[in-house]
Design a protein that fits this description.
Helix content is 42%, strand content 27%. The protein has 382 residues and is α+β, with helices and mostly antiparallel strands. Mean pLDDT is 87; it is low at 1-19.
């Protein structure tokens, strides 16, 4: 028996009452409801794996009820309240899954989800910098863990006009430090901003980021762009390194950057006449080659976005509610983790995606997903 004390307006104790434990019948009802939610979760995993616009409709026929009917919604509504438990279960598995050697990296990036219509959450007009055009859609900000070849995307959330992506990134950084003990953070030039860098340094952690070529450095009180500074060095002054069979020429400098303070700056280019890129880091004790090696791990999140869009229904999901998008994005993260490969999940998915029954069989046999639902059952029982 559990008791609680209720206090009156004056702060004194009014009475003590007893909270009765659930009866056996109530516990059994709860267990059956959770099992139904878990079973439906497996079906949704299969639909995500199917990666077709009609996947949910196809799944509805397989389960003998139509998408949009009360029966479908009833199954969906059983799973939605378990989203926080799902996330906790996934976090537990990720911590068990990550190796105990090598630096633990936190990677932050965002990607576009193109959608037309005004009913999708936080949909707005975005600018595509690669094509200098505009499109309708949403932005999804994701956070990934990387350690010794193992990856896990632990968070994906839609960000809109009312959200400050830099603040959202700082919140994700706090989670990765507190819950996952991340050592080093990687991100591209968009997130290389004073608030993010200062936040990481306050936490006494390291970062490696690409920065823009027009970033200003102060030399003897004068301002110079990084691309102007590097032109003063001849190619023979660059050091050649090899990483995974690829050659890079790098030049290492310690500069006082106008926006960020004193940082190590590494200029890297693939050939004598190629345009250089610039990396900045507060890890002054790391060699320039090691900084480049670590930064290259950032492209793991680019592979995740490519896989999610091509093979995991990332863009074809059609629901309008925020809560369903939250669940869908989390299922996508879990599924990618459960079938991750070194380069891409494409070969694994293509072998099963043409048949919803094969997708269901794959989900039912996947050890990682089974462990996820076992942990979910445990959390729901406590």
């Amino acid at each position: 028996m559990f008791s609680f004390i209720k206090r009156g307006k004056e702060g004194g104790i009014d009475f003590t009452s007893k909270v009765k434990p659930m009866s056996h019948k109530t516990q059994e009802k709860k267990r059956i409801s959770i099992e139904k939610a878990i079973d439906f979760g497996k079906q949704l995993f299969a639909a995500v794996l199917r990666s077709r616009k009609g996947a949910l409709t196809e799944l509805s026929r397989l389960l003998r009820f139509q998408k949009g009917t009360k029966c479908f919604e009833r199954h969906y509504n059983r799973l939605l309240p378990l989203i926080q438990e799902l996330k906790k279960a996934f976090n537990t598995l990720v911590l068990q899954f990550l190796p105990q050697k090598g630096p633990r990296l936190g990677i932050i990036d965002d990607s576009s989800v193109k959608k037309t219509g005004k009913q999708f959450p936080k949909e707005q007009k975005h600018h595509d910098h690669t094509t200098n055009s505009f499109y309708e859609g949403m932005k999804v900000l994701s956070s990934m863990l990387y350690q010794n070849g193992k990856i896990a995307t632990i968070s994906s959330k839609i960000v809109g006009k009312e959200d400050n992506k830099l603040i959202v990134a700082q919140e994700d950084i706090d989670v990765m430090i507190t819950n996952f003990l991340v050592d080093i953070f990687l991100f591209d030039s968009w997130y290389c901003k004073g608030p993010v860098l200062e936040h990481i340094e306050k936490k006494k952690k390291l970062f490696i980021s690409r920065t823009r070529c027009d970033t200003i450095a102060l030399i003897d009180g004068e301002e110079f762009r990084l691309d102007e500074i590097i032109k003063a060095f001849e190619h023979k002054e660059f050091k050649k390194i090899k990483i995974h069979g690829n050659s890079y020429w790098i030049k290492e400098l310690i500069l006082e950057l106008k926006a960020y303070g004193r940082l190590k700056v590494i200029c890297s280019k693939e050939g004598q006449f190629d345009e250089p890129i610039f990396l900045v880091t507060n890890a002054e004790e790391f060699s320039a080659k090691y900084v480049v090696i670590l930064y290259l791990k950032r492209f793991s999140i680019e592979i995740f976005f490519k896989d999610a869009k091509q093979f995991l229904n990332f863009e074809t999901f059609m629901c309008r509610k925020d809560s369903k998008w939250d669940l869908h994005l989390h299922l996508t993260n879990v599924l990618h983790w459960a079938i991750q490969k070194k380069n891409s999940i494409s070969r694994t998915v293509r072998a099963v995606r043409e048949d919803i029954s094969k997708c269901l069989l794959f989900i039912n046999k996947n050890i990682g997903i089974q462990k996820l639902f076992d942990e979910l059952r445990r959390l729901c029982q406590t």
